[in-house]
Amino acid sequence: MQLKLDEVLERARKFILLGKLDDAEVLVNAILKAQPKHKLALKQRAAIGAKRVLPNDQRGALMQAFNSGDLDGAIAQSIALQKRFPRATLLYTIQGAAHAQKGEHEKGRSRISQGSGY
Q1: Is the pTM of this model over 0.70?
Q2: Which domains does the chain have, with CATH numbers?
Q3: Is the dihedral of CA 10, 15, 16, 21 positive or negative?
Q4: Quick one: 21 exposed, middle or buried, by C-beta within 10 A (0-12, 13-18, 19+)?
Q5: Are 100 and 108 in contact (CB under 8 A)?
Q6: What is the pLDDT of residues 32-70, one digit of tens each?
Q7: Are 52 and 62 in contact (CB under 8 A)?
Q8: Angle subtended at Cα 23 by Cα 30 and Cα 36, rounded to the nearest 5 degrees
Q9: Across the chain, where does the E strand assignment appear?
């Protein structure tokens, strides 16, 4: 059974809302391959890109926690943000640096190494 274009777009929209950006991207790219100027698919691709970027306000709050010495707070914030932004390398870097400053050097290296995979 082949899905209609509207059904594919709706499925992609739901994936975006659920944070399943890779799944949404596969569907949107398939539509754009067939119809490169499809307006809704282009909007959905932009929405996917926007969700992959850590917003400035959240980045700022995280950096403020880290720079003020609230290392446990910075670690907790970055872990919570990773659920929504799993590819944001800054989150891994902050965790690694915070752990290193706490004397947990191996844990710090591990977190930074995980982030470098993106």
Answers
A1: no
A2: 5-51 (no CATH), 56-115 (1.25.40)
A3: negative
A4: buried
A5: yes
A6: 999 999 999 999 988 887 777 888 999 999 999 999 999
A7: no
A8: 25
A9: none
